[in-house]
Amino acid sequence: MHVLVAVDWHIIWLRIFHPGNVFARALWATIYISVISQVLGVALGLVAALMRMSRFAPFRWLSGIYVWIFRGTPLLVQLFFIYTTFNTPSFQFGKLWSIPAEATTGILALSVNEGAYMREIIRAGIDSVDKGQMEAAKSLGMRYGQAMRRIILPQAARVIVPPLGNEFNNMMKNTSLVFTIGVYELFADANAGYSASLLSEYFFVVAFWYLVLTTAWTFVQAWIERRLARSERGEELSFRERLEAAWNPAGAWLGVGRSR
């Protein structure tokens, strides 16, 4: 037996072309949570990767335990553990922008989880650079930190950026989980509309807006990769080829990405 469900196109039209101020705040929350969480996640991943490569055994152990815990447990469980255990602060940036305590909790959970995945991406990127380059930099009098910052990481960036772009794509979608701790973002806005009307069109529209965000990021990622490719003669891909690579997570970097 097939049941036909009537679609309220008026709701879809309004939510896409005339979303309103409340929706704009929810969209902004999704964007800033994604960006801040990804930046902090990359920073944590870099620290964890350097610890993993350290000659000091306790650093390697700590890095391994960190990855073991946060890659081996569900993100939602981590989110609720941090939410129920820690009192996170809120932040006020003038009169235009504030980050409530619940959003801070979400950012913390997403960042720590992301850092565990970024560790392997960054470590593999660093390993892709010929070890002789570090030795050559040291022979010129550079300290380890200088050589890493000026020689190794810039070259590793070409390997790191494709999976990093896919991680940020996932991050934007994972922000929907913070709805469970009271953050008003895109999914929370759709759920509020559905609760008031019982119309599933609200979820269709929020899916559309997530597609808008991820598609916009695909173009940005393709542009970044094309800029990095210019540094190597003969290996520059066309903008269309970069877009196709960005749309295909498995093709971006085999063996490092993950399914969610």
Query: Could you report the average pLDDT, rounded to the nearest whole number?
Result: 84
Q: Examine the secondary-structure arrangement and name the CATH architecture.
A: Orthogonal Bundle
Number of helices: 11
- Largest sheet strand order: 1-2
Biggest sheet layout: 2 strands, antiparallel
Radius of gyration over C-alpha positions, nearest whole angstrom: 21 Å
Low-confidence stretches: 252-257
Q: Tally of extended strands?
A: 2
Task: Spell out the CATH superfamily.
Answer: MetI-like
* Percent range for β-strand residues: under 5%
Helix fraction, binned, reads over 70%
Q: For the record, give the distance between the C-alpha atoms at the N and C termini, rounded to a whole number.
A: 34 Å
Shape: globular
Order of helices and strands: HHHHEEHHHHHHH
Task: Provide structural commentary.
The two termini are 34 Å apart. About 2% of the residues have low confidence. It is globular and about 70 Å long. Strands 1-2 form a two-stranded antiparallel ribbon. α2 crosses α5, α8 runs antiparallel to α9 and α9 crosses α10. By secondary structure, it is mainly α. It has 11 helices and 2 strands; from the N terminus they run ααααββααααααα. The protein has one domain: Orthogonal Bundle (MetI-like fold). A hairpin with a 3-residue loop joins β1 and β2.
